[in-house]
Amino acid sequence: MSDSNIIRVQIVDDHALVRDGIRGLLERCDDIRVVVESSTGEEAYTHYFEHHPDVVLLDVAMPGEGGLSALRRILRRDSQACVVMLTMYDDEVIAVKTIEAGARGFMSKGMHSASLVDAVRGVAAGEVYLEDRIAHRMAILKTGSGLQSLSGREFEVFRMLAEGKGVQHIADLLHLSPKTVGTHRTRIMVKLGCENVAELARIAIRKDIITP
User: What SS3 state is found at 63?
Assistant: First the structure.
């Protein structure tokens, strides 16, 4: 098969074993080649513009700059980037946020191996890929309630606050001013009816957005 027909893939996950497993699966296919692996959101951004892959498989939850933030940064510079978000949790709220941010797909890491290959091929061909159960749950999610009421940026700040990160740390990771992060924090508290970060953390744990 000529190089022009090969789908070039970037894998982004902070766990080497996960990256190895995905690479091994994809490289069984003659039409798919893994061209670079990244372990952080920062590396995801840098490596994307060094290697220009056709498809990016990007973990949602990583230390430091998370997957959603990395997705937004990549798309700001290349609006045509084809990114499939991967997560341990098939949560419809996270799925909505990633698709709204511009991801071309959203999948659980527990998916069947054939589904991942289908997703890579489909997204490379211009399709949007969602597992059936996620698509169904997204369709019935009540717009404007709970976490769904948060904007994409607010959701990023919410996750980081719930993880215990301070305002200055979040500002540095998201390339925002501390004042802007503080404003987001206030809006998040109001929208979710929380009085402190501990309550935010409980919501995040209950929704499997972070682990205790």
Answer: coil
Burial of 77 from C-beta contacts in 10 A (0-12 / 13-18 / 19+): exposed
Alpha helix (H) residue ranges in the chain: 16-26, 41-51, 67-77, 92-101, 113-124, 132-140, 152-162, 167-174, 178-192, 197-206
Across the range 51-75, mean pLDDT stands at 91
Q: What is the pTM of this model?
A: 0.67
204 Cβ contact list (under 8 Å, min separation 6): 158, 159, 162, 163, 210
User: Rounded CA gap, 45 and 210, in Å?
Assistant: 23
Q: Can you tell me the distance from the alpha carbon of 138 to that of 148, in angstroms, rounded to the nearest whole number?
A: 10
Check whether 13 has a pLDDT greater than 90.
yes
DSSP 6: P
- In angstroms, the CA 157 to CA 94 distance is 13
Give pLDDT, residue 92.
Answer: 67
Locate tokens 């940064």: which residue?
A: 73
Q: Enumerate residues 6+ apart whose C-beta is below 8 A from 46.
A: 38
What are the chain's domains? Answer: 3-140 (3.40.50.2300), 146-206 (1.10.10.10)
Q: Are 60 and 66 in contact (CB under 8 A)?
A: yes
